[in-house]
Write a structure and sequence with these properties.
The chain is α+β, with helices and mostly antiparallel strands. It has four helices and nine strands; from the N terminus they run ββββααβββααββ. It has two domains: 112 residues, no CATH class; 30 residues, no CATH class.
């Protein structure tokens, strides 16, 4: 059920997520947290979750998605300097929470992490030289990075 509180629409009742678990519809009221989400983070999240964008008009981008036979639309602001930018981001988060069956807080957390990269690091045996890596040809370690790597203490 959509209600209006403090001039902002919100979902008043707990819902169910895609797995059937109860979801607490936590309403976001922290304007600073909403304002901290960049337009690129919001766009990355929308694109990664199957939303289709229309041509931006310089102020906003309209995104649409068909879900469960219904078409949903969000209007993403492009200028974080707009006075009502946090409110417009909140509007986007509300629609996403409704479509995805998750809380607004959960959606905002996922938007915040959308651009996080994952880096895998391989650790070599102690006998390897600093800055070296194994060759794929099987001819021993290469020293491509050794010249730019500072020596390790005690070596």
């Amino acid at each position: 059920m959509l209600c209006v509180r403090d001039g902002l629409p919100h979902v008043a009742d707990a819902g169910r997520d895609g797995r059937g678990d109860a979801v607490i519809d936590a309403m976001l009221t922290d304007a600073a947290a909403l304002a901290a989400r960049s337009p690129s983070e919001v766009a990355l999240y929308l694109r990664a979750n199957g939303w289709q964008s229309e041509a931006p008009d310089g102020i906003v981008v309209r995104w649409t998605k068909v879900h469960g036979g219904d078409e949903f639309e969000v209007v993403q602001p492009l200028d974080p300097g707009l006075r009502d930018y946090p409110s417009r981001v909140h509007d986007v988060v509300q629609v996403l929470a409704l479509v995805e069956g998750r809380s607004e807080l959960d959606i905002l957390q996922h938007i915040s992490r959308v651009s996080t990269d994952v880096h895998l690091v391989r650790v070599f045996r102690v006998t390897s030289h600093p800055g070296s890596s194994r060759s794929t040809t099987g001819r021993g370690p290469t020293r491509a990075c050794e010249a730019s790597s500072p020596p390790l203490p005690g070596r």
